[in-house]
Write a structure and sequence with these properties.
The chain has a five-stranded antiparallel β-sheet with strand order 1-2-7-5-4, with no helix packed on it. It is rod-shaped, with a radius of gyration of 33 Å. It contains one helix and eight strands; from the N terminus they run αββββββββ. It has one domain: Immunoglobulin-like (Sandwich), CATH 2.60.40. By secondary structure, it is mainly beta. About 10% of the residues lie in helices and about 30% in strands.
Length: about 160
């Protein structure tokens, strides 16, 4: 009997502490964000290794430029002419070593017939997918550059993604 009395008393206290609400009101609001076109670019080295200027064959090597852009963003990648543009006996680009220059060039295709330049027409284009998109860069040092002395040759090329 005491338990019933206690339960009745507790129910009465709770009823007084939390009065029932008869009406409600609501409001809505918007949540917004803007996702602009965005791209990132990374580039790996192209290492030709040993080049024999007395050989009758060209030296070929490849590298990779990786583009990551927001989905549906149109982009194109251009490669500048490097630090020694036009100084080599052969090729549009040149690697330098102590005042000497070794000509080479970079291409968009495996047959090395389409040079890779720094305009939209000469670049490599695509559409963003939201994930990294690797693009192969094909390099070639033309054969028989017999005028270059022994040495370690290098150049720096800048890859730019335009979007």
């Amino acid at each position: 009997m005491k338990t019933m009395l206690r339960l009745a008393l507790a129910a009465a206290v709770l009823g007084l502490a939390a009065p029932a609400l008869a009406q409600t009101a609501t409001a809505t609001f918007q949540v917004t964000a803007t996702v602009p076109n965005s791209c990132r670019i990374a580039a790996g080295a192209i290492a030709f290794g040993n080049y024999d200027p007395l050989a009758a064959t060209a030296a070929d090597a490849t590298g990779t430029v990786t583009v990551t852009c927001t989905r549906t963003s149109a982009w194109w990648v251009g490669l500048d002419a490097g630090l020694n543009a036009g100084l080599g006996a052969s090729g549009a680009r040149a690697m330098g070593a102590g005042g000497s220059f070794l000509g080479y060039d970079l291409y968009r295709d495996a047959t090395r017939t389409t040079p890779w330049g720094n305009t939209q027409a000469e670049g490599s284009a695509g559409t963003g997918t939201g994930v990294a998109q690797p693009i192969t860069v094909y390099g070639r040092i033309p054969a028989s550059q017999t005028g270059v002395p022994a040495g370690a040759y290098a150049d720096t090329v800048t890859a730019t993604v335009n979007f």
